[in-house]
UniProtKB/TrEMBL annotation:
Role summary: Catalyzes the specific phosphorylation of the 3-hydroxyl group of shikimic acid using ATP as a cosubstrate.
Originating organism: Microvirga terrestris
Superkingdom of the organism of origin: Bacteria
Protein name: Shikimate kinase
Residues annotated for ATP binding in this entry: G17, A18, G19, K20, S21, T22, R123
Length: 185
C-alpha cells in the first residue's frame, strides 16, 4: 500500500463524531504509517485548546490556523491525517488534499453522530440549546461537499477494526480504478 501511496497522505474527513481520529489511528497502525490529528496539532501550535481558541479568537481565526496546519501536515506525507469537521469545507484545503492526498469521507447517520458526540462536551459548535438541530444543519451544509471526497466509507455502529478493514478494501479498489484510468490515457 505504501508503494501505491508514494508521498500522498490518506486524509479522513467528516463530521465530528464520525470516527476520524479513532479509525485514523487504527488505519495508520494497519498500514504502518504515521498518524496525525489536525485538531491536536492546532492545539499544540496555538498553545490552547480548540474551545479556548473559539472562545478567545473566534471560529474564523481557528479556521485560518487549521488551513495552515493541514497544509504543513500534508508536506509530511505519506501519513494518515484526521481533519476537523470543517476543514474540508475550505476550498484551498480541499485543493491541497486533492494534490497531496486521497480524501476519505467517514459518513455517519445523525443518530450515530449524536450518540458519539454526547460522550464529550468539548465540541464548540454544539455548545447551544439545540445540538441535534445544529448537527442537522451541519449535515445539510457539509455532506454535499464531503461527497466530493475520493472515497466514502460508512462509519456505522460496528467495531472500528471492521471499518478499517472496509476502508483498506475501498482503498485497494480506488488504486485499481486509478491504475485502469491511467492505462487508458
Amino acid at each position: 500500500m505504501s508503494r501505491l501511496l508514494g508521498t500522498r497522505s490518506l486524509v479522513l474527513v467528516g463530521l465530528m463524531g464520525a470516527g476520524k481520529s479513532t479509525v485514523g489511528r487504527r488505519l495508520a497502525q494497519s498500514l504502518k504509517l504515521p498518524f496525525r490529528d489536525a485538531d491536536h496539532e492546532i492545539e499544540a501550535a496555538a498553545g490552547m485548546t480548540i474551545p479556548e481558541i473559539f472562545a478567545i479568537h473566534g471560529e474564523e481565526h481557528f479556521r485560518d490556523g487549521e488551513r495552515r496546519v493541514i497544509a504543513r501536515l500534508l508536506q509530511e506525507g505519506p501519513i494518515v491525517l484526521a481533519t476537523g469537521g470543517g476543514a474540508f469545507m475550505n476550498e484551498e484545503t480541499r485543493g491541497r488534499i486533492a494534490e497531496q492526498g486521497i480524501s476519505i469521507w467517514l459518513k455517519a447517520d445523525l443518530d450515530v453522530l449524536m450518540r458519539r458526540v454526547r460522550k464529550r462536551a468539548t465540541r464548540p459548535l454544539l455548545q447551544n440549546p439545540d445540538p441535534e438541530g445544529t448537527m442537522r444543519r451541519l449535515m445539510d451544509l457539509r455532506y454535499p461537499v464531503y461527497a466530493t471526497a475520493d472515497i466514502t466509507i460508512d462509519s456505522h455502529e460496528a467495531p472500528h477494526d471492521k471499518v478499517v478493514t472496509e476502508l483498506i478494501k475501498a482503498l485497494r479498489e480506488w488504486f485499481e480504478h486509478e491504475k485502469q484510468e491511467s492505462a487508458r490515457t
